[in-house]
């Protein structure tokens, strides 16, 4: 194999797992784990458990996301040929067999890493695996209107946060459940931002999304309640005693949520820098700020 071919193959496999999207599980999981560590008053120092527990658990979630990305690109080959021909499989850098091998290996690695964390974390990893696999393989849920959004929001929002919290704490307490549900509803709405540039390709290949069924303008109104009100209702959760008053600052995340919907309404286009639209990028950034803000506020409240 020539040096150029080797570099091309290496780049193909890196592109296959879509490294930018792996930032979300790494950043979000580490933030939630740290909050769980502080809130649960876990014995030991953060430095002691970071390398031995937090980093492997975070890698497990990131690797799981990479496995899902690879599998999804195999399943989306016909769609990608139309709208994303620069992806590694349609451009011929990675074979379908190679992509399936990478996906299977990463799923196995993620599950193996979770065995060293705890039983509840393993259960959440297996649950997320179920959602990501059934999202892509026939009869795949990605093609089903409404269910495709649910199949993104549940594993990446609720289950991902509960898995991270379970590393040190009880995932079924009001605090992690409340934040997990907020993230889930936000991602159920925000997940349609990835469908904007695939509108015509999805329609041609039989995938029904809110974007290609109702149009971006109407779809932005349909998902607005899912993205705006979970943050706007945080004061109500505080009043009900489900969240501490310090978390009221997270209410301000309703502002970028509004702008995500606005960008979709004004006919958002693909970014020249990132791999998707501006609304998609802002959706990811808002999710990052939710996790970071939650972690900081919980830690400050526990230290007070």
Describe the structure.
With 304 residues, the protein is mainly alpha-helical. It has a single domain (21-303), classed as Tetracycline Repressor, domain 2 (Orthogonal Bundle). The protein has helices spanning 3-17, 19-39, 46-75, 77-83, 96-114, 119-136, 147-165, 174-190, 199-204, 210-214, 216-232, 234-239, 254-265, 278-303. The mean pLDDT is 93.
Quick overview:
The chain has 304 residues and is mainly alpha-helical.
Q: What labels describe this entry?
A:
304 residues, mainly alpha, 14 helices
Calculate the mean pLDDT score and round it: 93
Which runs of at least 5 residues are low in confidence (pLDDT < 50)? none
CATH topology-level name: Tetracycline Repressor, domain 2
H/I helix tally? 14
Task: Just give the CATH class.
Answer: Mainly Alpha
Helix content: over 70%
Order of helices and strands: HHHHHHHHHHHHHH
Q: Give the distance, in angstroms, between the N- and C-terminal Cα atoms.
A: 60 Å
Q: Beta-strand level of the residues, as a percent range?
A: under 5%
How many domains comprise the coordinates?
A: 1
The H-level CATH homologous superfamily, spelled out, is UbiA prenyltransferase
Shape: globular
Per CATH, which architecture? Orthogonal Bundle
Sheet with the most strands, sense and barrel status? none
Please report the total strand number as a whole number. 0
Q: Indicate the radius of gyration in whole angstroms.
A: 19 Å
User: Structural class of the helices, strands and pairings?
Assistant: mainly alpha
């Amino acid at each position: 194999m020539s040096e150029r071919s080797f570099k091309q193959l290496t780049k193909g496999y890196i592109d296959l797992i879509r490294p930018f999207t792996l930032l979300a599980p790494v950043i979000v999981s580490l933030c939630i784990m740290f909050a769980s560590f502080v809130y649960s008053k876990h014995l030991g120092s953060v430095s002691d458990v970071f390398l031995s527990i937090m980093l492997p658990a975070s890698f497990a979630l990131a690797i799981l996301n990479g496995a899902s990305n690879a599998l999804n690109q195999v399943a989306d080959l016909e769609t990608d040929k139309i709208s994303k021909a620069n992806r590694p499989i349609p451009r011929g850098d990675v074979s379908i067999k190679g992509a399936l091998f990478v996906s299977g290996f990463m799923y196995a690695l993620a599950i193996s890493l979770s065995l060293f964390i705890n039983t509840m974390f393993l259960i959440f990893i297996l649950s997320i695996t179920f959602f990501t696999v059934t999202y892509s393989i026939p009869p795949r849920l990605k093609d089903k209107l409404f269910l495709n959004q649910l199949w993104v929001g549940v594993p990446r929002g609720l289950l991902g946060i509960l898995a991270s919290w379970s590393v040190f704490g009880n995932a079924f307490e009001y605090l992690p459940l409340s934040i997990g549900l907020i993230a889930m509803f936000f991602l159920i709405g925000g997940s349609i931002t990835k469908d904007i540039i695939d509108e015509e390709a999805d329609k041609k290949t039989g995938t029904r999304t809110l974007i290609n069924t109702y149009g971006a303008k109407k779809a932005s109104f349909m998902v607005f309640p899912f993205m705006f009100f979970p943050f706007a209702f945080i004061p109500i959760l505080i009043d009900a005693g489900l969240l501490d008053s310090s978390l009221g600052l997270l209410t301000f995340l309703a502002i970028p949520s509004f702008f995500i919907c606005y960008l979709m309404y004004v006919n958002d286009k693909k970014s020249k820098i990132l791999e998707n639209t501006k609304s998609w990028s802002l959706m990811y950034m808002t999710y990052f700020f939710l996790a970071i803000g939650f972690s900081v506020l919980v830690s400050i409240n526990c230290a007070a």
